[in-house]
Design a protein that fits this description.
The structure is a homodimer. Chain A is about 40% helix and about 15% strand. By secondary structure, chain A is α/β, with parallel strands linked by helices. In chain A, α15 crosses α16. Chain A starts with 6 loop residues before the first strand and ends in a 7-residue tail after the last helix. In chain A, about 60% of the residues are buried.
Chain lengths: ~450, ~450
Amino acid sequence: MENVPYKIYLTEEELPKSWYNVRAHMKNKPAPLLNPGTGKPMTFDELRPVFCDELIRQELDNDHAEIPIPKPVLDFYRMYRPSPLVRAYFLEKALGTPAHIYYKFEGNNTSGSHKLNSAIAQAYYAKQQGLKGVTTETGAGQWGTALSMACAFFGLECRVFMVKCSYEQKPFRREVMRTYGATVTPSPSDTTQAGRNILKEFPGTTGSLGCAISEAVEAAVTTPGFRYVLGSVLSQVLLHQSVIGLETHTALRKYGIKPDIIIGCAGGGSNLGGLISPFMGEKLRGEADYRIIAVEPASCPSFTRGRYAYDFCDTGRVCPLAKMYTLGCGFIPSANHAGGLRYHGMSSILSQLYADGLMEATSVEQTSVFAAAREFARTEGILPAPESSHAIRVAIDEALKCRESGEKKTIVFGLTGTGYFDMTAYQKFNDGEMSDYIPTDAELEKSLSKLPQIG
Amino acid sequence: MENVPYKIYLTEEELPKSWYNVRAHMKNKPAPLLNPGTGKPMTFDELRPVFCDELIRQELDNDHAEIPIPKPVLDFYRMYRPSPLVRAYFLEKALGTPAHIYYKFEGNNTSGSHKLNSAIAQAYYAKQQGLKGVTTETGAGQWGTALSMACAFFGLECRVFMVKCSYEQKPFRREVMRTYGATVTPSPSDTTQAGRNILKEFPGTTGSLGCAISEAVEAAVTTPGFRYVLGSVLSQVLLHQSVIGLETHTALRKYGIKPDIIIGCAGGGSNLGGLISPFMGEKLRGEADYRIIAVEPASCPSFTRGRYAYDFCDTGRVCPLAKMYTLGCGFIPSANHAGGLRYHGMSSILSQLYADGLMEATSVEQTSVFAAAREFARTEGILPAPESSHAIRVAIDEALKCRESGEKKTIVFGLTGTGYFDMTAYQKFNDGEMSDYIPTDAELEKSLSKLPQIG
């Protein structure tokens, strides 16, 4: 073994004190959110009924590179951060690769993922504004769990709309959220107009993040003292998640390591966007170059088969329009697709960076993802979430390419979380009953044909 | 906040290189295992059909204070150790106590508990001996998961007998073990003579650790190339678990902190025994004094209501006799008791220390344990295992006493693991449907009346 420890931990002094806003260094800024009624950029005042004030400021801020992290959020971060940057010595050995593999492991907290980084920030700003509670949606359940924890910590009410197929596959996720005091409703539900509309149009649907967002937004704007919060996609979320990348950057620099390839799974883009932000910043400023790869499921391929266009952020078409790689807001991934990464669109920051050729994207099928997950579990000990395992799959593939070529590349990937609540999916895989699903061109064309004609 | 960080991490250089064998410093050594046939101490040769050779040597070693940790085990430890020693600032604040509370958190690995510390050592020695595989039992499932991980790492077969009530309450535990390649059988089963006997005597039983041990031992001695391994109770296990206490001791010393009270939950005693070992060593050598408290469930109260006597280690009466605090090897805790800590006996090391007045014991009821668990989850973020929460309950109670008295005591407790697979129990608690159970004197007398007449 070499001089780099298995796990690079930072001291509390080395933790970032500010988030990094990559938009400040983008030449082509991400396109603004548009009001679907007027076709004009959403203003602060238009967003106020939905979001907390301070979070709107962060959403609209394309200028400030550094946003100080409030003291109470820093204090909370110290309960579970820094997260370890781990050298995958055992995986390297099992693969027989000359590549060096590192992963930034965000699963070492009860929410089981990186989502807590933004949840605690959003809950803090809601509390600071004197709100009573927040509503949200959750797909795989990680964001809902994280938000429940954050709300319990600050004494806020928390109402979660959980995508129905996850609600059914993950009964224990619900109990974790309840233990933290949240209420959890399977979505689509008949508790909102948006939910009733979706149920009417798609009876028997297992739901999607897009549906659940519509319901959560409606519940927020119709309940006094409540606002809506979102765990991915938005630029404010990527800002908070920059803590992942900043820690990774500091840890690598501490040992003089320069990554060649940085890999992250991409659903709405929160982990990938956070992980790559300081590295992308260097790239944008011409200080360094990296290959950056977004990995998405073949069953929900926004980057690789979507269209870069304005679309609704939600299925119920009540939210603003965002310019992003999208499969169409009516797209609902097949129920056989396990775990998260089920969103029809993609962060507008990442979409712009991808459109500008600053990063790559690839898609992988789920049986090969679970094979990578199992290999990783058996060699590195950690049982990964299905979402995280998309990044593992591609990290392994890149390391195997190095075995062929003899190149000693340095690969860094984001391990977003743990799979303790995904055992139904693992059981299917263990029993050989898992199948793959790739939407046909006709299916995609159908949902893309309904894109709004704006922008 | 003060100068002590939220989490005290050690560098890899500060990690222990040897385990600490507290028996070397005990004036009254733990009583030896006896052969139930002859009533004489078990010899190395008598133990060989059941246990790995090197583990027998460790089991019988009352002399060497330091046992070097083999290099491959040290390497594996570095994947998930050091575990953090956390200052519970937020819990202290919520309780309004002047006490300082620290917890040593062992749940930051996929097995979810401290059990991995011994599992990887035992798997290593089995591999080194050229064995094909191992058998074991598991109660709450943490030990089985840990052993599955360890066996996957070294390429050993792993056969787990899982206490039936846990098997039914925790279907996902089974899948984690299967993902790591283990086979899992609910116990009592009809695959062994011991299991068939128990099923005949107690039809419809939900099982106990004692039953599962009988089955696993039988499976080991009747399968060529297999040995039996155990996750608690044995002195070798406490030896491996001393890594918990050694890290805690180093971390506290690093910041000049001297604990007043050390608290751990006690089922078979593996976590408590490991946590306290270096502190008990100081106490035995007259170098320092500490209050040490074992916490057990009121439904399975070996220390507080058991008898210090020779008893079988298993329900099927096929194992050697150990002198320990026991409820009688036929004692099976009520099915309403959640989680682990279901063993009828107790580590013979801890039993001797308790008999010698070197530590205290107390018992707590499970609804109050889950109330403490929920409070801890909401303030400190971590969702604790029910077992761990026994220690949390008493740590909170001691901190509240400090609030009354104004004393600024330093309390350290062992947080053995996470509760992700215990959501069925949490759900009962969340729904107000959890009940307490305390065995009657008559029930205990009944099982104690069947103690073997030896020693």
